[in-house]
Design a protein that fits this description.
7 helices
Length: 158
């Protein structure tokens, strides 16, 4: 029996199972396998002797108690800071929307676009208008989705 076969048999042994004579003979003759088998035995015995962790119900209960113990005034500060920043964020949204909307109409009058339209045809204008309209639709959707009122922890029924 070689070392690889011996280690495979050591790994297949159940806890407390008697070692077969052929494996015992190899372990007596091979110091490397003997050391590896002892280390595996130590690991298995330490794992089986280790303390069990608390049940998941107990952990969940402790987590919920910690959450409930958090001070609620933190939420008020978060809400106040968000409301103070709202005019600046709204202004940025409006400016971006105006840029997208105006580009739908103004890009048609640029010299570069006229050159492209002359070389590629009128369908370029249609496809550009469709692409910019889709950008505007996605932009409005993102604006609405980001400004929906979100339920807070404090507003949940108790």
């Amino acid at each position: 029996m070689n070392c690889e076969q011996a280690m495979q048999r050591v790994l297949m042994l159940d806890n407390g199972q008697q070692i077969p004579p052929a494996l015992e003979k190899h372990l007596a003759a091979c110091p490397a396998c003997r050391l590896e088998a002892r280390l595996l035995g130590v690991v298995v015995s330490s794992l089986s002797a280790g303390t069990r962790s608390a049940s998941s119900d107990a952990i969940s209960e402790r987590v919920m108690q910690a959450i409930m113990a958090e001070p609620r005034w933190l939420e008020e500060d978060v809400d106040n800071s968000a409301s103070q920043q709202f005019p600046h964020r709204l202004f940025a949204w409006v400016v971006a929307g105006v840029v997208i909307f105006s580009s739908m109409f103004l890009v048609q009058y640029s010299d570069s676009f006229r050159w492209l339209r002359d070389s590629m045809g009128v369908m370029l204008q249609v496809w550009l208008s469709v692409a910019l309209a889709l950008m505007l639709v996605f932009f409005i959707g993102a604006f609405v989705a980001s400004h929906l009122s979100k339920p807070t922890y404090a507003s949940r029924p108790r």
